[in-house]
Amino acid sequence: MDAKVLIESFAEFARSKNVDRPTMIRILEDVFRAMIRKKFETDENFDVTINADKGDLEIFRIREIVDDNSEDIWDFDKISLSEAQKIEPDFEIGEEVYEKIELEEFGRRAVQMARQTLIQRIKDLEKDILFSKYEEQIGEIISAEVYQILGREILLIDGEGNELILPKVEQISKDRFRKGDTVKAIVHRVDMINGNPKVILSRTSPVFLERLFENEVPEVYDGLITIVKIVREPGERAKVAVESYDDRIDPVGACVGMKGSRIHAVVRELQNENIDVINYTDNLELYVSRALSPAKVSSINVNQESKRISVFLKPDQVSLAIGKGGFNIKLASRLVGYEIDVFRELNEYDDEDVDLNEFSDEIDQWIIDELKKTGLDTAKSVLALSKEDLIRRTELEEETIDEIFRILRTEFEQ
Fold first, then answer.
1. 362 CB contacts (<8 Å, ≥6 apart)?
2. Could you say which of 117, 194, 236, 370 has the lowest number of CB atoms within 10 Å?
3. Exposed, middle or buried: residue 230 (CB in 10 Å: 0-12, 13-18, 19+)?
4. Which residue intervals define the domain S1 motif in the entry (predicted)?
5. What's the CATH code, domain 205-280?
6. What is the pTM of this model?
7. How far is Cα 144 from Cα 88, in angstroms, rounded to an integer?
């Protein structure tokens, strides 16, 4: 393989990978200089000129002519007068000899190895470009096509044919994709594993929800409305705290849109995830009250030291505050940064009810605490629920719940 064929084949391959001309020339020169160092031990006195468009390669060895008896005659950049005159008879001491080195002088094996090295360098460069490209896009939404569905992940292809990964844990539980589907997700992170970039996408990240709002709500995109914080249980419920420094803008109304037109687009993309948009405020009690929406709070007691908040509600509001699967109160706690305990307000009709603490001699305290976390602080509030409801709301086992029911029922039968 001569230089022209080698360079032209490499240039064509490089162009197919969208490698720019300066980078192509730099890689070619690096590889040829590596060949020179392997054969001559150094490349310091060599000039390499490449014209990738024409496939031209010129390698010149530059040496200074010294007397045959000079002590410098063995230096890499020196040549004896007698040797120089074999190249050109009229050379004199002190002149420089430019000796052209043909590619064939390196040997067929070295040239083949150079070809393989060039291709590998482009592949490595391609990996670096892919890594850098997606590293700059971390936190941004992209669209990609599903091409393979595996047990623990979905493999997608972007517009340039690069492979992206959407792990199961980064998918919404209700997501159902088929080959050929277009998927929206954010670039979650980019890992380099054994020299290969792995682009990990996510649909469960709060950032994904934030970017969807930016796409659907111009005021958010323009910075007129600020998203202060987002908490999510992907596919189930989310709470978004927003604020605006312009009093003329209603941040909640702008995010929801006329008849919910803006937020509906976001909800559909998130598989009907229930999204609560609330006004952020520095007033902690008001913030907690808004965070527990749609429940209406009667009173709040804040303990700054323990970072706990006791919230009291009317009996018919307790289940709303807790929400299906306990998601509402969990998300409210994460949004405000305090642990929220829900308590039922007693009224004149609750005289016959009994506080759960009265059963501490029969029911372990940790079980009572677990029930109170879900707003169940009296015997009748527990008995009003079915076994299935308690299993869903708490982390208690079925046998434990059966025993609780037995103890509480015995109290009222007596």
1. 407
2. 194
3. buried
4. 139-204
5. 3.30.300.20
6. 0.68
7. 64
